[in-house]
Amino acid sequence: MDRLTQQQRTAVLATASAVGASVIAYTLYKSLSRSSSSSRPRKAAKGYSPKPLPPGCFDAVIVGAGPSGGTAAYYLAKVGAQVALLDKEHFPRDKYCGDAVCTPAIKILEEMGVLDELRQNNECHFADCGGFVSPSGLSYIGTSQHKLGEAAACAVKRTHLDERISRCAARTGADFKEGFEVTSTTFDKQAGLWKVTSAKGEEVSGRVLVIADGATSRLATKLGYCTEPAKGICSRAFIEGGTHNADFDGVCFYQRESLPGYSAIFRHANDELNFCYYLIPCGKDDMCGNVKESDLKRLHENALKSDPFISKAVGPNAKVERMRAAALRLGGQGLKTTYDDHLLIIGDAAGHIDPLTGEGIHTAMMGGKAAAETILDMRADGDFSKAAAKCYEQRWMKYYGHDFYLSKKGAELIWRYPILLDACANEMQRKGDAMMAMWAEIMTNIRPKTYFLRPDVACQLGFAVVREFWNQKIMRRPDQYTPPAAPAA
Ligand SMILES: Cc1cc2nc3c(=O)[nH]c(=O)nc-3n(C[C@H](O)[C@H](O)[C@H](O)COP(=O)(O)OP(=O)(O)OC[C@H]3O[C@@H](n4cnc5c(N)ncnc54)[C@H](O)[C@@H]3O)c2cc1C
To answer: May I ask which residue range the UniProt record assigns to the signal sequence (predicted)?
Structure first.
């Protein structure tokens, strides 16, 4: 009887905390909603003497033809601006990635006409059947398209995506120079022009330098804008189509050991799978929760071999590619600013990857579009000063940057309290696809993370936490991730 009273007391306390959390969440939601809507782009400052563009020079020189650089080039070229798009590689080229393209990027691809090309060539696969597995092994796999009216993400191989975007920019009028590895840049303040030189000694000059050279950004580092190496990392391995057992389009697996990181499987149009393991910086310096960058290989291989959910989906006969890995620069890490006189930094070079999900294709493309809009304003005003360039930061903050703070806090929360993810999975099991669709919308930037703080959503999740607390701590529900005990000898 005494023990029951104690349990009841715990449950009452947990309920009170859930209600309290909802009230705090409401206050936060209101204040964050206000602050994000007040960051409107300002008109560029005047008073900067406009100079005609010298012959052979470009309005913008973009270094890097990934999704950020390619998108910026397209939107500049579309209205007749002179733009050079430079990349050290020859396209098509591979880029290590999970290949999950979220809705905001799908919308931009549609606007560019690239989505039709991808569809016609069977290079994109819209994810319908998907879900996630929580740290205690609660899983939900459902369908979200019928609830959302559209897929929250699609899978496109980066060899296809980046080539189609950059060729589209070139068709629209951008001068796309492949095999152009930028090794030095100099700024002539008098003339207001950047000179960019390649490893082979070729030169290109332009009014605005756009740095889009990816997460390790040699250029932003060399020019002093980026002061730290990227702290996150992610692995990738393709699994040959027809050799695996996966019957879903996309699932995230939140293994307890590596929270707030996770692993994910995405299916391509040709039935190939993309398996990735994201390690997200969190907690002490140089740590990704309780693990380090050096743990990635072990985690990646163990997940494929021993994770009960992943090994079942992959199956015993799967042909799995060797693990590859690349850096993740999340939430603006290592940069104090993304603009200066005649200069903008976009995409991974600016650290524009969501610090909760590790996804950055959509932010790279939205940032590329924001950069193009800003350069066009600067060009119209003849003002390329730092004050005019500031509009770029106001734009990206409005489009997606306002979410970074809550994403970072979200990552910290799930690292400290994995039960929060268990509660979400539990709620999905109860509410089905409606809850799954809401989760997908928030995780893919269709809705801002502040949506989690809406009183109705926060209350629903608060009660789910209480229920999960009851199941785990009081009813002692076994952890689905715990390997079964070895039989007695
Ligand atoms: C393993 C992994 C998995 C990921 N999974 C996902 C996912 O599923 N979904 C998602 O949305 N995001 C994902 N991301 C993040 C995503 O890949 C990036 O956010 C995105 O590629 C950023 O685009 P970008 O154009 O800024 O940079 P990049 O795509 O890195 O492009 C940079 C370009 O610059 C060029 N370059 C570099 N240096 C020079 C130079 N000196 N001169 C000329 N050119 C140069 C490079 O060749 C490259 O083409 C993942 C990242 C990793 C590492």
So the answer is: none
Among 36-45, 161-170, 320-329, which stretch is predicted with the lowest mean pLDDT? 36-45
Task: Check for a shared fold between 58-99+157-229+330-404 and 232-328.
Answer: no
Please tell me the distance between residue 214's alpha carbon and the centre of ligand 1 in angstroms.
Answer: 5
Closest Cα partner for 208 from 224, 223, 194, 188?
194
Looking at residue 86, the DSSP 8-state letter turns out to be E
Burial 101-139 (b: 16+ CB within 10 A, else e): bbbbbbbbbeebebbebbeeeebbbbbbebbbbbbbbbe
Counting ligand 1 atoms within 8 A of each CB, the residue from 88, 203, 407, 444 with the most, and so the one to mutate, is: 88
Round to whole Å and give the CA distance between 290 and 478. Answer: 23
Probe target for ligand 1 pocket from 97, 167, 183, 330, with the most ligand atoms within 8 Å of CB: 97
- Contact 63 CB / ligand 1 (< 6 Å): yes
pLDDT of residue 370: 98
466 in contact with ligand 1, CB cutoff 6 A: no
Helix axes 2-37, 455-469, angle to 10 degrees: 150
- Residues 204 and 61 sit within 8 Å (Cβ to Cβ): yes
Its CATH class, for the domain covering 58-99+157-229+330-404, is: alpha beta
Question: For the chain, what are the domain ranges?
Answer: 58-99+157-229+330-404, 232-328
Cβ neighbours of residue 55 under 8 Å, at least 6 residues apart? Answer: none
What pLDDT score does 439 carry? 86
Half-sphere exposure of 7 (CA within 13 A, CB side): 13
What tens digit of pLDDT does each residue of 189-221 get?
A: 999 999 999 999 999 999 999 999 999 999 999
The pLDDT, as a whole number, for residue 451 is 87
Q: Do residues 341 and 193 make contact, with C-beta atoms less than 8 angstroms apart?
A: no
Task: Please check the confidence at residue 9 and state whether its pLDDT lies above 60.
Answer: no
CATH of 232-328, one of 3.30.70, 3.30.300, 1.20.144, 1.20.120: 3.30.70
| Per-residue confidence band for 436, with pLDDT thresholds at 50, 70 and 90 | confident
Give the CA angle between residues 143, 423, 32 to the nearest 5°: 90
